[in-house]
Amino acid sequence: MLPPIASRFVAGESPADALEHAREVNERGVSVILNRLGEHYDERGPAEDDAAAYRDLVEELANTDVDACISIKPSQLGLDVGDDTFRELVTDLVDHAADRDVFVWIDMEDHPTTDVTLDVFCDLARKHDGGVGVCVQANLERTRADVERLADVPGKVRFVKGAYDEPASIAYKDKARVDEAYRELLEYAFEHFDGGIAVGSHDPEMIDLAKRLHDEHGTDFEIQMLMGVRTDAQFDLAAEGYDVWQYAPYGGKWLSYFWRRVRERKENLLFALRAVVGR
Ligand code: FAD
Asked: How many angstroms separate the alpha carbon of residue 88 from the centre of ligand 1?
C-alpha cells in the first residue's frame, strides 16, 4: 500500500485508486492526466505489460464519467528495446484510445529520444486528426525549429522547461536562458498555433504570460501541473474558468518518482520530513 508520505505526489498504486483521485480532483473543476509509473524497460515483456495496462485503463475511462486522459513515456512503451517496438506499442495504444475518444499524451524523455518521439507523434496525430499530444522542452536549442514544424500538425503540444540534464553543446544550462526560451516558445505558439497549447509549468510568470497571450491572440490553451505541486493554484485557476489539468502518476513503481519530487525543491523535502516525524 502507498504510504501516506507519498500520497501527496502519487495517486495510489492501483488504477482504481487513480480513478478515485481523478474523481475528487474533477469535483474541483480540474481534469486529470493519468500516468502509470514505469520507464526504461530494456525488454519487450514489461513494455507490453504496461501497454496492456494502459489499454485497460482507457477502457475504464471510456466507460466512466471521469474527466481524464493518459500520458505515457516512450521508454515505458519499448523505446529502449528499439524504435520499432515503441512505434508498434504506442500506435496500438493510440488506435485503441482514439476509438474510445480517450486522449493520449506522449511525454518527452532525454535528447536521444526526441527525433523518434516527434516522428511517431506526427504520424499518429495526422492519422487520427488529433487525439494525441506531445511534450517539447524549452531547454533544448532544437525545440524552436521543432515547434515551427509542429504548428501545422493536428494534436496538442505541451510546453515544459525540461527535466533532463542535457549536454551544454545542445541545451541551455542557465535557468534564466531556459525561462527566456520558454517565453519565446509560448509567444510563437500563441501566434501560430490554432489551439492545442498546453502550458506545463508551475511558474506563475509563465502562466500569466499565457493568459496575456491568450487575450492578445485568442488561441485556446490549457494549464498542466503535477499532482502535489501548487494544488491550490490549480483549483483557483479552474475556478477562474481556465482549462486546468493535473498530471497524476499512479502505480507500484512510485518510489523513484516520489524522491525526484522531494529532491527538486526544498519545500517538498520539508513536507516529506514532517510526514516522517508525524508533524
Ligand atoms: P520552475 O522553473 O521549476 O519554477 C519556477 C517557479 O514555479 C518557482 O519559482 C515557483 O514560483 C513555482 N514552482 C515550481 N515548483 C514549485 C513547487 N514545487 N511548489 C511551489 N511553487 C513551485 N519534463 C520533461 O522533460 N518531459 C516531460 O514530458 C514533462 N512533462 C511534464 C508534465 C507536466 C504536467 C509538468 C507540470 C511538468 C512536466 N515536465 C516534463 C517537467 C518540466 O520540464 C519541469 O522540470 C518542471 O515542471 C519544473 O519547471 P516549472 O516550469 O514548473 O518551474
From this structure: 30
**Where do the domains of the chain lie?**
4-277
- The closest residue, in CA terms, to atom 1 on ligand 1 is 203
Please give the Cα distance from 12 to 193 (Å, whole number): 36
Domain 4-277 has CATH 3.40.50.300: no
Q: How high is the pLDDT of residue 272? A: 62
Q: Which pLDDT belongs to residue 6?
A: 82
246 Cα nearest atom in ligand 1: 34
Does the active-site annotation cover 107? yes
Please tell me the distance from the alpha carbon of residue 126 to that of residue 31, in angstroms, as a whole number.
25
Q: ipTM higher than 0.90?
A: yes
For position 279, what pLDDT does the model report?
42
Catalytic residue (choose from 17, 107, 146, 179): 107
Q: Which residues of the chain have pLDDT under 50?
A: 278-279
61 in contact with ligand 1, CB cutoff 6 A:
no
From the CA of 179, give the closest atom in ligand 1: 2
pLDDT at 57: 98
What pTM value is reported for the model?
0.95
User: Is residue 183 lining ligand 1, measured as CB closer than 6 Å?
Assistant: no
Length of the chain, please?
A: 279
Concatenated DSSP letters of 220-275: -EEEEEETTSSHHHHHHHHHTT--EEEEEEESS--HHHHHHHHHT-HHHHHHHHHH
